[in-house]
Design a protein that fits this description.
The chain is of the alpha/beta class. The chain has helices at 2-15, 20-31, 46-56, 72-76, 110-122, 157-160, 174-189, 191-195, 203-214, 220-234, 237-240, 256-272, 280-291, 299-303, 308-318, and strands at residues 36-39, 61-65, 77-82, 87-92, 99-103, 124-127, 130-133, 139-144, 165-168, 250-252, 296-297. The strands form four sheets. It has a five-stranded parallel sheet with strand order 2-5-8-1-9. The chain has a two-stranded antiparallel sheet with strand order 3-4.
Length: 322
């Protein structure tokens, strides 16, 4: 199992240059059996990362470009009337694949977003009166473009909770961008290098890694630490005090889904670090991407220019490991 993990790490870091946090957190979400929301400027290898991951684990990959005129059936599939038989036949949509890139999910209207969220939450799609199961390994990578807001349909905060992780990406360094330039030029000169990806493992291997992560040892003190971190988002005044106006800096804390997500992601992080037990450091390392989309900061915090990540970092630093 460790050799599979190392091969996946090396492959993704080679395919996605200058984004080590992205490759690490994608693997955490995959092993923790959750889905990822990526937010960042265009052109920073989000699609490349999804394709490289799908190719490495020998999975069927599908990219869906979300647009305002998209219909739920365009994502899930639909019943098509067959004139020869006089019967309706279900034609599967692009969601019926193992690795799905939902590009610019905030451009799709609510009904399309709901169809995707049902697939993520229930591992099935419903068309008419019938439900159809998705593959055992089903991994959604959704992206949001934070630049343009006109003509978009932002996901409600309660729906964001369904994503295991929210990963924020920035531009690569100058050195990484130079390396990207040279790599793409080399691939353009030798097309076969860019189009062939050798599978490093199978979906069965990933399912086995998911089960192994669930079997790792977690002490009772680490369990309590996870719960206290989540409780700190609901009662931040105990750790951060109040705003100058006497108001809390967080209006809504993380839901119980955050507790479950911290448990699963901390286990996946321990497995990626070749340990058979979970430490408080594993929890701290995954806390920010797990919590950042699950809390709503107050008006006072926003007016003071305090970001969600800054508040959460302060909370993580203040909550003691038991």
């Amino acid at each position: 199992m460790e050799s599979v993990i190392e091969r996946l790490k090396d492959h993704l870091n080679h395919a996605v240059i200058g984004q080590p946090d992205l490759t690490q957190e994608l693997l955490i979400a995959l092993i923790a059996n959750g889905h990822v929301l990526l937010e960042g400027p265009p052109g920073i290898a989000k699609t490349t990362a999804a394709k490289a991951l799908a190719g490495a684990i020998d999975c069927r990959f599908q990219r869906i470009q979300f647009t305002p005129d998209l219909l739920p059936g365009d994502v899930t599939g639909s019943d098509i009337y067959q004139q020869e038989t006089g019967q309706f036949t279900f034609i599967a949509g692009p969601i019926m694949n193992e690795v799905v890139l939902a590009d610019e999910i905030n451009r799709a209207p609510a009904k399309v977003q709901s169809a995707l969220l049902e697939a993520m939450g229930e591992n099935q799609v419903t068309v008419g009166n019938h439900s159809y199961p998705l593959p055992p390994l089903f991994f959604v990578i959704a992206t949001q473009n934070p630049i343009e807001q006109e003509g978009t349909y932002p996901l409600p905060e309660a729906q964001l909770d369904r994503f295991l992780l929210k990963i924020k990406l920035g531009y690569p360094s100058a050195e990484s961008e130079l390396e990207v330039l040279r790599l793409v030029r080399q691939q353009d000169q030798h097309k076969t290098l860019a189009t062939t990806t050798k599978a490093l493992c199978t979906p069965t291997d990933i399912l086995a890694l998911q089960q192994k992560a669930l079997s790792l040892y977690m002490s009772e003190s680490v369990e309590h630490y996870i719960v206290q971190l989540v409780m700190a988002t609901r009662h931040p005044e105990h750790y951060l005090g109040l705003s100058p106006n006497g108001e809390s800096l967080i209006d809504f804390g993380a839901s119980p889904r955050a507790t479950l997500a911290l448990d699963r992601c901390a286990r996946a992080n321990a497995l990626l670090n070749s340990r058979d037990f979970v430490t408080p450091d594993d929890v701290r390392e995954v806390a920010l991407p797990v919590l950042r989309h699950r809390v709503i900061t107050s008006f006072e915090a926003q007016a003071s220019g305090i970001s969600t990540d800054e508040l959460l970092t302060r909370l993580i630093n203040h909550v003691p490991a038991l």
